[in-house]
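Hey L., structure's done. Input below.
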Amino acid sequence: MYCLRTENLTKLYRNNGLEIPALKNVGMRVKRGEFVSLVGPSGSGKTTLLNLVGGLDRPTTGKVYIDDRDITAMSERQRSDMRLASIGFVFQEFNLIPVLSARENVEYVMLLQGISQGEAQRIAVETLAAVGLQGLENRRPNQLSGGQQQRVAVARAIATGPSIVLADEPTANLDSETGHNLVDAMRRLNDELGITFLLSTHDPMVIDSTTRVIRMRDGALLEEA
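Output:
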């Protein structure tokens, strides 16, 4: 039922001998197929939470479960495999490989999974079409607009059929119209394919587009609407 659960998730950073809490006992649930926004001011802990949920960092205490598997108990290699198989990432800086085409960027993760080149290419072309980039498959990132690059990032995130897609401020570097089009594309993927999204955002348009809002402040959850 839940593709993501956290229990008493705490992250402390040390600075000049002091322990600075970035997260405080966060307990969160995201059901399969939800489209959820994670909202709060800068410094509230949103990115830290996404990094822990995505297995990019380890908590000081607490647990993270993806598909009922405790990723905090996994080795570095096991967490890497989990990220590859079950978690899609969309970053505000796009993080595309500049020397690869849009199609090759989307294929890349699938090739790491051991999918054949022909099958990866077929899925990449279909996925790029699903986010509105049909005909642009062979363009490199510097030949695409910011919004198009972010759509490539979304296509890359969903191509492997992850349990959940984590998006950290996905519209932050886009103008309002481009951002709106991107969120529409993600919402359509959620509606039509049942892909689960958790989006960290300050953007009121993104918040209005999600079906549930989780609010944070000072490293703690305030409310879920």
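The radius of gyration is 17 Å. The chain has a mean pLDDT of 92.

-- N.
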